[in-house]
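Workshop exercise sheet. Pairs work together: one partner reads the sequence aloud, the other fills in the structure field after running the prediction. Swap roles for the next sheet.
Pair: D.N. / O.F.
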Amino acid sequence: MAASSAFMKLARGLFVAQFLLPAAWASDQPLSAIDWLSNSVAPPQAEPAQNDVTPLAALPSEIAVLPLDGNTPDGVGLQPAEQLGLAPGLWGRSSAADLARAVSTLPDGSNAPPALNRFLRDVLTGKFEPPIDAAIDDRFFLARIDRLLSMGHLQEADEIIRRAGPEESRRFRRAFDIALLTGTETEACRIIENVPDISPTYPARIFCLARLGNWDVAALTLGNAEALGILTPEEEVLLLHFLDPELFEG
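Structure field:
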């Protein structure tokens, strides 16, 4: 099923703004500020052509997929839809995959009119009824977060993740990026200390061991990772430089 007409109207508005404004829009995809540690905000991967449209018959019913309490990440928002002047059921019977695709393929809004970007921010942070299959597919939630990060709305993205619960690894990967960008990595590293498997990458685990003062354990972990061939040569150099900068002085 096609994504909601609201996104289609928004996409048209962004395209119109692109061609009416004299400056060319940036073509580079946003990346993590410290991409060797997490790299959560990466260019979207192309999906197989047969997944471009979700057949109506393939969509599960709302009763079949939504938990009784309705608690899914896509039900989380910062303000009710009514306060935005929008309908709570804006997404209709759209699937999470279709909505995620609609968000990820919107044009870069760097030179779009501010009002249009504000509207997109409000839509992405608003509290709406979840997509029909949100209980088994969180791609739309992650697409919302990624677009907010690429737009620079770190606080909004962080708050939505907190309300949804950062315990899931892909959500935490994005929360970790936000922590690095906002200087709150100690809190994120303590989560990794308590739940090591949630670490977004092996370098992130080593970084956090050192960040929390466990330098010897960090160095030992780095040595083991090198021996096992887990790290790329670039990651090895960066981590060595981080753990022992004196090796690179002079």
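Discussion prompt: The chain has two domains: 5-184, 201-250. What would you look at next?
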